């Protein structure tokens, strides 16, 4: 029995080894042009699975790469065990403390839906399908960035599995160095299983795209974005205060949950 086969008895989640049915789909990146010649895919069921995987990888000399969505896939994963975090999908919003706790498999769209129900927003980027954790570990440049800074700077705490396979809660007091490194340094310092971060008031946002061609291409684009750019309490990087419904093609003034 191989080291990879051994894993099956240690985890609650699925282990798919190259050549097995379902492996091709499970190992595919979001960008289909990127080939991912990984040795196996592990779909962790929970944080304990992540811990067991890391411990086993240490003992067996395996390399683990975390990839919730594959938005940042480069293809440099030959022979590694690809860790999927999709089942770590919890989203909790505390509207009083204005804090969200999300699992490492959650994408921004779900956070924004949960936060918008309370007139709050996280600091997402341009796409609802980008993973919250991967985005934030890389810094996270949001449409709200001018007002609230990098998404990484709004993190209160990370729940991680370290290189020994130990679980820990990391914040500015418990481990300042690791907390600093995780906020912008990428995913090489620990496997994150969940994060807590600040939410911000955002009672409404008018946004949209379209009409650029109708207004004369790039030259007209500034006018379109100014026309659509009203953020909470003023403007957050998208132009001047606008009048709702001002956009071309009937898309201006439509309420959207957070972007
Ligand atoms: C359509 C689109 C729009 C985007 N818009 C923006 C934007 O507006 N602003 C912006 O700042 N960025 C933006 N990005 C870039 C995006 O933030 C990065 O590609 C980010 O790395 C994607 O994270 P992911 O988890 O979805 O991708 P993945 O490729 O699955 O993961 C990326 C990397 O994050 C790390 N990682 C992920 N999860 C964990 C974990 N649990 N533990 C440890 N490491 C982990 C790993 O190193 C992994 O290689 C955009 C990307 C796309 C595809």
How would you describe the overall organization of this protein?
- The chain starts with a helix and ends with a strand.
- Mean pLDDT is 83; it is low at 211-259.
- The longest helix has 14 residues, at 47-60.
- The chain has 259 residues and is α+β, with helices and mostly antiparallel strands.
- The protein is 24% helix and 20% strand.
- It has helices at 3-8, 23-27, 47-60, 108-116, 132-137, 145-148, 176-182, 218-228, and strands spanning 14-17, 40-43, 64-66, 81-84, 91-94, 99-103, 120-121, 155-161, 167-171, 191-198, 200-201, 206-207, 254-255.
- The protein binds flavin-adenine dinucleotide (FAD).
- The site of flavin-adenine dinucleotide has 26 residues, from helix 5 and strand 10.
């Amino acid at each position: 029995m191989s080291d990879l086969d051994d894993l099956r008895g240690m985890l609650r989640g699925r282990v798919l080894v190259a050549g097995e049915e379902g492996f091709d789909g499970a190992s595919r990146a979001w960008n289909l042009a990127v080939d991912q010649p990984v040795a196996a895919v592990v779909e962790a069921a929970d944080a304990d699975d992540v811990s067991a995987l890391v411990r086993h990888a240490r003992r067996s000399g395996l390399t683990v790469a975390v990839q919730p969505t594959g938005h940042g896939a480069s293809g440099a994963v030959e022979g590694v065990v690809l860790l999927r975090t999709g089942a770590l999908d919890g989203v909790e919003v505390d509207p009083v403390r204005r804090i969200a706790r999300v699992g490492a498999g959650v994408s921004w769209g779900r956070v924004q839906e949960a936060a918008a129900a309370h007139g709050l927003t996280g600091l997402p980027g341009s796409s609802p399908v980008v993973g919250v954790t991967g985005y934030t570990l890389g810094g996270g440049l949001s449409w709200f960035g001018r007002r609230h800074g990098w998404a990484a700077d709004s993190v209160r705490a990370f729940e991680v599995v370290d290189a020994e396979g130990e679980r820990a809660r990391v914040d500015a007091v418990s481990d300042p160095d690791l907390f600093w490194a995780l906020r912008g340094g990428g995913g090489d310092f620990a496997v994150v299983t969940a994060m807590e971060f600040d939410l911000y008031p955002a009672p409404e946002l008018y946004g949209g795209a379209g009409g650029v061609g109708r207004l004369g291409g790039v030259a007209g684009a500034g006018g379109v974005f100014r026309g659509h750019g009203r953020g909470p309490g003023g403007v957050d990087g998208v132009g001047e205060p606008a009048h709702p419904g001002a956009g071309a093609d009937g898309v201006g003034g439509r309420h959207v949950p957070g972007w």
